[in-house]
Specification:
By secondary structure, this protein is of the alpha+beta class. It is built from 18 helices and twelve strands.
Length: about 500
C-alpha cells in the first residue's frame, strides 16, 4: 500500500510538469495487462462507405465553374467558393498576405458595410466566412433554403466588390498580430512552421502563416491589388449543396455572378515543382525552461491525386493516425512517454507531407525519437497484419462517412477536390479505393515513404535536453527558422 501511494504521488508530481491528468491515465493504462475481449461478441457489421452525391457540373460564359448538389429534405443550403491562389501565391516579401485578405474580405463592399453583410446573412439564417489555405482561398456560407437568393446576393457582392476598408483592415491586422503572438507561444505551431521551412526552403509551400514583419508591412492597397488579381471567375468554383431546385438555383447564379468579369491581366502563374527530397537533418529551436520536448518527424508523401494516396492514408492510420495505431501502442500505452503521439498525411495540390508529432517529457526525449524511428522503419520493412488493415479500413471509411453528413462539409470537400484538379466523383471513389487497399499495398507505400532515413526532424524544447539526448542520433544539426530575423535556414 505504501509503495502504491508513493508511486501515485510521484505520478502526480510528474503531471504538473507534463501539463495535465491525461498523462496519469495513460501511464496507468500502460501498466495494466491487456485483457482479451469476450468470445461471444457479435461480428462487425458491414462497412458503410460514404455515398457519392449526384453533382450537376456546369460552367458560366465568364469561366466560373459551378457544381450543384440538390439534396431535398432538411431546409438549408451550404455554399463553398474556392478561388485559386492561397498562401503559396503570396509575394515573397509578404508571407501570409492571403490570411489577412481572407480575414478582411467579408468586412465591406462598395454598397454594404461589414455590419450590413453580417445582418443580411443573419437574416438569411446563416453566416459567411473566408479562410486561406495553401493553394486557395475559400468563402463559405450556410443559410436557410427559403432565403437562398438574398444570401446569394451578399455572396456575389463579396466576390466581386470587396473594398477592404481601412478601419476594418487595421482591426483585422491587430487581431492577426495578437493571434500570431498567441500561436508563437505554442511549441507545436513554432515547430510546424520550422518544419515546413526546413523541408521546402524557398518554395512557396514553406509558408504556413504570416510573420509579425509581414503584417506590419501590409497595407489595404496590398489586399485590394491581390484581390483584383486572384478573385476572377475563370479561376473560381462555386459549390451549392442542399434543399433547392437546380433550375432556379442556376438562374440565381447566372443573375448574380454571370456578369462577373475576369480581369485582362494573366492568371496566377503555376507553382514551381516541389522538392523531391528533404534534408535528413535535425532542426532545433530552444524553448527555455520547457518541461517537454515537441518532436516533429516528417517525410514527403503523395498528394491527393497520386495513385499512392489511398494506400498511404491506410498506412498512416496503422502507423499513428488512429487510437489503436502502432505509435499509440508503443509510445503511449507500452512506454508511457507521451499522452498523444500521432501522425497524419497533410496534402497540398503538388505534394504531401507525412508528419509524426509527439510532446514528450524531457527525460525521455531521446528514447521517444528512437521509438518513432523504430516504428517508421517497421512500416518500411514489414507488412501489416490483416487485423491492422481491417481496423484502418473501418476507422477511415467510417469517420469519412460521418464527417460528410454535414452539407457544409460536402461542399468544402468538393471545393477541395477542384483545387487539387480532381473531379467531383472522387469524393466517393476515395472511400472505395481505401476499402480495396491490401497488405501488399501498405507494405509498398511503407517502403516508399516511411523510412526514417528520409525524415526531417524538428525538436522544440530545452536546449540542454535536446543537445544531450538527440546528439546521439548522429544527424546533422541545424538551427530552426527564426521569423523575427526575417531569414530562414533552408535546405542546402
Amino acid at each position: 500500500m505504501r509503495t502504491t501511494i508513493s508511486n501515485s504521488l510521484f505520478s502526480l508530481r510528474s503531471l504538473r510538469l507534463c501539463g495535465g491528468m491525461l498523462l496519469l491515465c495513460s501511464l496507468a493504462a500502460a501498466q495494466q495487462k491487456a485483457q482479451p475481449l469476450p468470445k461471444d461478441l457479435p461480428p462487425y457489421g458491414a462497412i458503410q462507405p460514404f455515398r457519392q452525391p449526384a453533382v450537376q457540373a456546369s460552367r458560366l460564359s465568364n469561366g466560373l465553374t459551378v457544381w450543384l448538389v440538390p439534396e431535398p429534405g432538411f431546409p438549408k443550403v451550404a455554399f463553398a467558393v474556392a478561388v485559386r491562389g492561397g498562401l503559396s501565391a503570396d509575394p515573397a516579401d509578404r508571407p501570409g498576405l492571403a490570411d489577412l485578405l481572407a480575414n478582411v474580405l467579408t468586412q465591406g463592399t462598395r454598397t454594404r458595410s461589414s455590419r450590413q453583410i453580417a445582418e443580411e446573412m443573419q437574416g438569411a439564417g446563416g453566416d459567411i466566412s473566408a479562410s486561406a489555405r495553401a493553394d486557395s482561398i475559400f468563402v463559405t456560407a450556410q443559410v436557410l433554403a427559403s432565403r437562398t437568393e438574398p444570401a446569394m446576393a451578399v455572396l456575389s457582392d463579396v466576390l466581386q466588390n470587396a473594398t477592404f476598408p481601412d478601419d476594418e483592415f487595421e482591426i483585422a491586422r491587430s487581431n492577426a498580430a495578437d493571434n500570431l503572438r498567441a500561436q508563437e507561444a505554442d511549441p507545436s505551431f513554432v515547430g510546424t512552421r520550422a518544419l515546413y521551412k526546413a523541408m521546402f526552403g524557398d518554395h512557396p509551400y514553406a509558408t504556413i502563416s504570416p510573420t509579425q514583419a509581414s503584417l506590419a508591412a501590409l497595407t489595404p492597397a496590398d489586399l485590394r491589388r491581390e484581390y483584383a488579381r486572384r478573385f476572377r471567375p475563370d479561376q473560381a468554383l462555386l459549390v451549392c449543396v442542399g434543399d433547392f431546385d437546380p433550375a432556379r438555383m442556376s438562374a440565381a447564379i447566372e443573375s448574380s455572378l454571370g456578369k462577373w468579369a475576369a480581369p485582362q491581366t494573366p492568371a496566377l502563374p503555376a507553382l514551381a515543382a516541389t522538392p523531391t527530397t528533404t534534408p535528413h537533418a535535425m532542426f532545433t529551436l530552444a524553448r527555455p525552461n520547457s518541461v517537454q520536448t515537441t518532436l516533429l518527424v516528417a517525410t514527403l508523401g503523395p498528394n491527393r491525386a497520386s495513385p499512392d494516396y489511398a494506400a498511404s492514408r491506410v498506412a498512416t492510420a496503422i502507423f499513428g493516425g488512429m487510437f489503436g495505431s502502432r505509435l499509440i501502442r508503443n509510445v503511449r500505452e507500452d512506454k508511457g512517454y507521451s499522452y498523444s503521439p500521432f501522425a497524419f498525411l497533410q496534402t497540398r495540390r503538388l505534394t504531401g507531407v507525412l508528419i509524426t508529432q509527439a510532446d514528450v517529457r524531457n527525460a525521455v526525449t531521446g528514447a521517444s525519437l528512437n521509438e518513432v524511428n523504430y516504428e517508421l522503419n517497421r512500416m518500411a520493412t514489414t507488412e501489416p497484419t490483416d487485423d491492422e488493415i481491417t481496423t484502418a479500413h473501418r476507422y477511415l471509411i467510417g469517420n469519412r462517412a460521418i464527417s460528410l453528413q454535414s452539407r457544409a462539409s460536402v461542399a468544402s470537400q468538393l471545393a477541395a477536390l477542384w483545387v487539387d484538379n480532381l473531379p467531383p466523383d472522387e469524393l466517393g471513389r476515395e472511400s472505395e479505393r481505401m476499402e480495396k487497399v491490401t497488405v501488399k499495398d501498405v507494405a509498398e507505400v511503407g517502403r516508399k515513404y516511411f523510412a526514417a532515413q528520409r525524415a526531417t526532424v524538428v525538436a522544440v524544447g530545452e536546449q540542454q535536453v535536446i543537445d544531450s539526448q538527440l546528439s546521439l542520433f548522429g544527424m546533422e544539426r541545424r538551427p530552426g527558422f527564426a521569423p523575427e530575423s526575417g531569414a530562414a535556414k533552408p535546405p542546402q
